[in-house]
């Protein structure tokens, strides 16, 4: 253990990471630098600083990464219309490469030998943190205490905390009903009654949204402006990426939008049930597909849809910094040059309805051709006969051979 002189710890100030801080000093006999990321989780982070100071930490980093998170991670992912296994908007997954990036930057800045995280050996986050770290700093040492120590139960953690004078913010023996993780894109819930996939989530679990039944009886109409595939304004008001996403979260949550209850396949092999609130992301996905429907070439749009599940798996499994994700991103971003315009949406009782879309300069919709009225010769309907016969040729030949 003596080769590690300094380690950068992803530190929340909660029980687990406070124990890890003490454990690192005890087992590795090293200096610990703490890093706490503000990625829009809506929590006061100064208590984390106070706790780190109380532990005698000399170098404490608390960084506001909300704009970088929205601009450089969330928005590029949404250009791909990304959904994992058809339902999950990847709120936790997309935050991990940013945290890994900042851990490595701080390690380089402070001359640290290693980084450490509090992800368990059962989950996806250990993979995401470490793949990101190795991609950005190939020789970095990664310490994952949950894979090393024998503190394998809540009782052992509490006993360790008591032995070492680590403050506990809750009563002993009182189990928190859910494991939650929040950022600007979403909040997730695991554990408690959710461990039984048959049990319905309790209504008072949800933090960001009203139930669809309790949402207003009057719909909310909004207009989102897109430029090069990214949303840049709501109702004509230009906003930064983080402010825009936060605004959509409030609008969506107030209308009961964005709840999901999923059983997903973790990268490590097990199935896991989780509940998620992603109100702003749910609106963004619907709006982005709407503006693309107007501005993207058919084959480009279909190719994007074919590639999206692969892109989603790369993000979910922790390969954000991989060459294949970067290659796909370049292709996706190139497709967004003409994705410009405005989408009008109706938010009503848990649903997002597209009620209008327009693009002054990049629309491929030609009303003169698509009309059911007289098209004044813009489209020759007789051309369809040869088109159909040529496309039917292989099937007609097969049928004549008795293969139909």
CATH superfamily of the largest domain: HUPs
Radius of gyration, CA atoms, in whole angstroms: 25 Å
* Biggest pleated-sheet summary: 5 strands, parallel
CATH second-level architecture of the largest domain: 3-Layer(aba) Sandwich
Helix content: 25-40%
Descriptive keywords:
404 residues; alpha/beta; Rossmann fold; Argininosuccinate synthetase, chain A, domain 2; 3 domains; five-stranded parallel beta sheet; five-stranded antiparallel beta sheet; 12 helices; 19% strand; elongated
Walk me through this protein's architecture.
The chain is an alpha/beta fold and 404 residues long. The chain has 3 domains: 6-77 and 84-163, Rossmann fold, CATH 3.40.50; 179-296 and 338-358, Alpha-Beta Complex (Argininosuccinate synthetase, chain A, domain 2), CATH 3.90.1260; 369-400, no CATH class. The protein is 40% helix and 19% strand. Strands 3-2-1-4-5 form a 5-stranded parallel beta sheet, sandwiched between helices. Strand 11 (259-265) and strand 12 form a beta hairpin. Helix 4 (96-110) crosses helix 5 (125-136), helix 7 (241-254) crosses helix 8 and helix 9 (298-317) packs antiparallel against helix 10 (323-335).
Secondary-structure topology with pairs:
Layout: E1 6-10, H1 15-28, E2 31-38, H2 46-54, E3 60-64, H3 66-79, H4 96-110, E4 114-116, H5 125-136, E5 141-143, H6 154-163, E6 179-182, E7 187-190, E8 220-227, E9 230-234, E10 237-238, H7 241-254, E11 259-265, E12 271-277, H8 279-295, H9 298-317, H10 323-335, E13 341-348, E14 351-358, H11 367-370, H12 383-400
Parallel strand pairs: 1-2, 1-4, 2-3, 4-5
Antiparallel strand pairs: 6-7, 7-12, 8-9, 8-13, 9-10, 11-12, 13-14
């Amino acid at each position: 253990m003596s080769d590690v002189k300094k380690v950068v710890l992803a530190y929340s100030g909660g029980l687990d990471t406070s124990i890890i801080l003490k454990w690192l000093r005890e087992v590795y006999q090293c200096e610990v630098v703490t890093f706490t990321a503000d990625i829009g989780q809506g929590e006061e982070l100064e208590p984390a600083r106070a706790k780190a100071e109380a532990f005698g930490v000399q170098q404490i980093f608390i960084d506001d990464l909300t704009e970088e998170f929205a601009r450089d991670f969330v928005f590029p992912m949404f250009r791909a219309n990304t959904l994992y296994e058809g339902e999950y908007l990847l709120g936790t997954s997309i935050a991990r490469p940013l945290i890994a990036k900042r851990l490595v930057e701080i390690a380089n800045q402070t001359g640290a030998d290693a980084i450490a995280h509090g992800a368990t050996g059962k989950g996806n986050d250990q993979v995401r943190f470490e793949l990101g770290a190795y991609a950005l700093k190939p020789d970095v040492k990664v310490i994952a205490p949950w894979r090393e120590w024998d503190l394998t139960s809540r009782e052992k953690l509490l006993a360790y905390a008591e032995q070492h004078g680590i403050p506990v913010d809750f009563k002993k023996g009182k189990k928190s009903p859910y494991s939650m993780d929040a950022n600007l894109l979403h909040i997730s819930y695991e554990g408690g009654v959710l461990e039984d996939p048959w049990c319905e989530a309790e209504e008072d679990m949800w933090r960001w949204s009203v139930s669809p039944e309790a949402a207003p009886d009057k719909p909310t109409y909004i207009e989102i402006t897109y430029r090069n595939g990214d949303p840049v304004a709501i109702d004509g008001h230009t906003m930064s990426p983080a402010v825009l996403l936060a605004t959509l979260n409030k609008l969506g949550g107030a209308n009961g939008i964005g709840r999901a209850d999923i059983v997903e396949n973790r990268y490590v092999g097990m199935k896991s049930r989780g509940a998620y609130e992603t109100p702003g992301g749910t609106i963004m996905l619907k709006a982005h597909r709407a503006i693309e429907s107007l501005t993207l070439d058919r084959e480009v749009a279909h190719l994007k849809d074919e590639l999206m599940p692969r892109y989603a798996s790369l993000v979910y499994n922790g390969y954000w910094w991989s060459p294949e994700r970067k290659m796909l991103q370049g292709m996706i971003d190139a497709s967004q040059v003409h994705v410009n315009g405005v989408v009008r949406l109706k938010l009503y009782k848990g649903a997002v309805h597209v009620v209008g879309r327009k693009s002054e300069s990049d629309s491929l919709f030609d009303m003169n051709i698509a009309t059911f009225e007289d098209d004044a010769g813009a489209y020759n309907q007789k051309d369809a006969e040869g088109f159909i016969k040529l496309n039917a040729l292989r099937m007609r030949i097969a049928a004549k051979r008795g293969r139909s």
